[in-house]
Amino acid sequence: MKKHTRILALLLALCMALSLAACSGNSGSSGSSSASGKTVVIGCQTDLVTLDPGNMYEPYANMISYAAYDMLYRVKPGTMGDPEPSVATGYKVDESKKVYTFTLRKDVVFASGNKLTAKDVVWSINRVLNMKDSNAYSMVKGITKVEAPDDYTVVFTLEDADASFLVKTTSNAYCILDSEVVKQHGGSDSGSDTAKAWLDTTSAGSGPFVIEKWTPKEQLVLKKNDKYWGTASNIDSIIIKEMTSVDAQITALKNGEIDISLGLDSETAKQLDGVENVSVATGTTALETFLVMSRDSAISPQMSNPLVQQAVRYALDYKSYLTMGGKGCTIPENIVQNGFPGALQRDAGYTDLDKAKELMKQAGYENGFDITLTCANNSSEGLEWTTIAQQVKSDLAKININVNIETLEATLVYDKMRNGTMPFYVMFWTPDYYDINNQFAFLPGTGDDGTAYGNRTKWEKTADNQKLWDLANQIKVETDTAKRASESEELQKAFDADNPFTFLLQHPKTFAYRSDTLENVSYSDLCKIDLCTLKAK
Asked: How do 237-242 and 37-44 pair as beta strands?
């Protein structure tokens, strides 16, 4: 009996050992191979508010939309914004330059197994057209109708000729959704859409990955789409891990706990010099950090004064911001970043305290005033917004403006921004599509026909600023590169005379990755790391 008991005990111990071995795996290790494939971990501080392509607007949103969805065209990897076909095989434009006809591939399927056809394109665009409160609406509002004459042809008719339309189709607003699936979860192409909550938990696209789980402010998990119609990725899953500390990202990268760090700048990247199996790389970006000053006198009669806003621009010590931003930073004159036609740069010596004080006197605020400067616990390419806010506080004290810094969670700041309830705040912006027409989001205009930042600042369109729109309307349809650049320069000079912003920096992108676990690490400003072409070793 004792012998039988000992044998039974040994068998039980063996079963337990095998069970533990099966469960241990290496699911938490970076870039690891396992029975289910390879996992890549990206450490960064995203600004994700939603995963619904029809509501996305934030700079990191396209990194996700590009992985989970297809558009008609997408940005070519490694470029600032050059379009190349995605599910479209080509397009034609009629003589009016208002009618675009796209032909589609016939082999594209969604993750559900449903075929992608022209009706899905039409439904997806009409969904956004009927979501006028969404951030993506501004990208499609120039479309008067979109039609599908057959299963693989889509025809767009525009209200006006738009030289940037093809580039616009590379943005998340043009993501093609599986209409049959989304309709089952509240999706509508005629208004009253309620699918956002569901799309924040998953995806309904045809990209190489599907969204498996999103825990806001913690991490997002993408899984390989087994039904992907293109070349399959050799990566089984991608974890995008929220890491607010740059030092924590650097340590994790050194230790192999993450494969990519996106929170670096030129200074912090020096900590990785000489580290084995770690490569530091740079990319061009159109990301700019700026100050926003409301024109709503009900929020702040002092800060809404155009003379005070001009005084703020003269009072800032631009050389200090360049130093903070690090190698490669530049100062845009205003809304047109380097890399776009006719871009102008502001001289770092623009600071003029005497002129700033005189403007404050003309405004009736020679003795200054108190103002709250709101900033998110966020960063622009590794530069913390709180650091920027402290410098602004120091600079404006010299013209008797007493700045009280308010730091909030990023989502709260974005909500307040969209509702236009802050008198003074730090913000960043990068284009949704890479054409100068996108920068018109900063022009004056309120209400349904207004602009994104016109509404956010309550900056109204008037006879005094009509010249801005006259120039913008010329640029919008101009296809001659030299003429466009000349008109762009004129627009920037006119804009600089009166506007509710101060543009501080245009940032370069510095990132690092594990060269022993990854290859083909491509960066473009629109979608950050191109997850579609990323490869694991």
From this structure: parallel
User: What is residue 175's three-state secondary structure?
Assistant: coil
Contacts of 154 (CB under 8 A, 6+ apart): 72, 101, 102, 104, 118, 121, 122, 146, 147, 148
Residue 474 DSSP SS3 = helix
d(CA 216, CA 200): 10
Read off the pTM. Answer: 0.74
Query: Within its chain, how far is the Cα of 362 from the centroid?
Result: 39
Contacts of 346 (CB under 8 A, 6+ apart): 318, 331, 332, 333, 503
Cα 206 to its chain centre, rounded Å, is 21
Q: What was the pLDDT predicted at 13?
A: 44
Q: Spell out the residues 6+ positions from residue 246 whose beta carbon is closer than 8 angstroms to its own.
A: 261, 263, 264, 265, 268, 379, 382
**457 token code pair:** 């600042």
- The CATH 3.10.105.10 portion of the chain extends over 288-506
Amino acid at 336: V
Copy the structure tokens of residue 26.
Answer: 């290496």
Q: Kindly tell me the sign of the dihedral angle through the C-alpha atoms of 184, 187, 191, 197.
A: positive
Q: Where in the chain is the domain with CATH 3.40.190.10?
A: 41-239+510-536
Q: What is the pLDDT of residue 207?
A: 98
Is-contact 378 419, C-beta < 8 A? no
Whole-angstrom distance, CA of residue 104 vs CA of residue 111: 18
Please give the pLDDT value at position 283: 85
Query: Position of tokens 């032909």?
Result: 103
Angle between helices 481-497 and 466-477 (to 10 degrees): 160
Segments in the chain below pLDDT 70? 1-37
CATH topology of domain 41-239+510-536: D-Maltodextrin-Binding Protein; domain 2 (3.40.190)
Could you tell me the CA-to-CA distances from 424 to 290, 358, 416, 480 in Å, in that order? 11, 21, 11, 38
Identify the architecture of domain 288-506 in CATH: Roll (3.10)
Q: Residues 6 or more apart from 11 whose CB is under 8 A from it? A: none
Contact 82/76 with Cβ under 8 angstroms? yes
pLDDT at 215 (0 to 100): 97
